[in-house]
Amino acid sequence: MLSVEQNERLTKVGPGTPMGALMRRYWHPIAGEDEFVDRPTKKVRILGESLTLYRDKRGEYGLIGERCAHRGVNMAAGIPEEDGLRCLYHGWKYDSEGYCVEQPAEPEGSTFKNKIRLTAYPVQVLGGLVWAYLGPEPAPLLPRWDIFVWDKVFRQVGSTVVPCNWLQCQENAMDPHHAHFTHGVYGSYIIERMEERGIWVPDYMRRVVNRLGGSRAVKNGFDRFEHGVIKRRLMPGETEESENWRIGHPMVFPNMTRIGKKGWYCFQIRVPLDDTTTWHLNYEVFDPGPNGELPEQTLVPLFDVPIMEFPDYILGQDLIAWSEQGPISDRTNEHLGESDVGVIMYRSLLEEQMAIVEDGADPMNVFRDPELNQRIDLPTEDYGALRDYQEGAAKYYDTGPHGHVEYMDEVFLKAKKAELNEAENGG
Ligand code: FES
Ligand SMILES: [Fe+2]
Question: What distance in angstroms lies between residue 315's CA and the mean position of ligand 2's atoms?
């Protein structure tokens, strides 16, 4: 149970708040490049600030204040030019550093424009996402986590705007006990409701729900490591030699979780838009291995993952749990038990890292050495080998039928066949 003050300290992310200061030490995704195919501007909320993201005619992104400094028109309605964004009302033009560079209606020779500057923040592109940094200069490097930079994979991003505070989404990353209930027991209940209503229940959903509902981890472990916390679990019948225990998978500080299995890897990224809204990105990477034939990918598709009444996919079940904790979970009324050790550990890690920022130093996962940022590899246990792949399974990881995985299923089945053939032929 937390005090009101402790809960606010951990949840509020606006300018001038302790958590806002910690979060401003990191790059955050603010858009998918996919969103700029049809429209060159986007209204952005991030860490409680309202901004305009645009792509100029050269294809470069700029992130500037929400409204024109003249008379307040939203800049997202403006006109992108070669090297800046022009307001549609009287034509004031801004460059990507927020400087006003033209005021067509002012007298020739006027220096009025030199007094005008909008907020502006640096942006970079990586892995099909546009990232922004809102913190103190000099900006650290944009971390090149492994799956953002791997070659020969297929990527897709499931996107959900969740109507609740970011912390309850991310606390889920340190809460392994929910898997059996939310995805097994509640999953079975959803199947019953679907059957009652005559909604078709795919086999792959039954398989996963039965597996998660039919077993629970006999032991869970949490260990600090350089990038966050490694989570381990021991399933019935497994020894501590199993990958589930020996390798585990990480909560990547401050707001990501890495999950996956052989052939499919994912970052769940919980981006605080403001105190009561979180952008959840399910960044999925399909890697069918050397036998997989992948289509050339020029754009990473970003698709909506809805919050549904009867979520027939795993992430949807989590989305219900998080949003039903309320806009900001009232932690003054919670009752944490021994099974909540991971959540408690995560909160103290947040406190520790906020204190580091308050002392003026760089917190965990701030990178400044390009040598160490070529590719940052993370451990992920492989608990489902490609040869165990079952038809349709890709459609249930993790955004289910809402993604673009129809043909990944085919790619996996082909790759599996090739792997089995090779094994048979002693390859
Ligand atoms: S309101 Fe933008 S130029 Fe006048
Ligand atoms: Fe979950």
Answer: 6
Domain span at residue 208 reads: 146-424
In the chain the first and final C-alpha atoms are separated, in Å, by 57
Bridge-partner residues for 278, per DSSP?
A: 162, 272
Q: Which helix H or strand E contains 144, and what residues bound it?
A: none
Which band of pLDDT confidence, cut at 50, 70 and 90, is reported for residue 415?
Answer: confident
The pLDDT tens digits for 71-94 are 999 999 999 999 999 999 999 999
Ligand 1 mutation pick, 70, 74, 100, max ligand atoms within 8 A of CB:
70
Q: Do 43 and 167 sit in the same domain of this protein?
A: no
Q: Which atom of ligand 1 is nearest to the CA of 71?
A: 1
Q: What angle do CA 229, 171, 310 make, to 5 degrees?
A: 125
Any domain includes 3: no
Q: What is the pLDDT of residues 267-306, one digit of tens each?
A: 999 999 999 999 999 999 988 888 888 878 889 999 999 9
Together in a domain, 265 and 309: yes
Q: Which of 133, 165, 188 lies at the terminal end of a domain, its last residue?
A: 133
Which ligand approaches the C-alpha of residue 72 most closely? Answer: 1
Instruction: State in Å: Cα 129 to ligand 1 middle.
Output: 30
Q: Is residue 140 part of a domain?
A: no
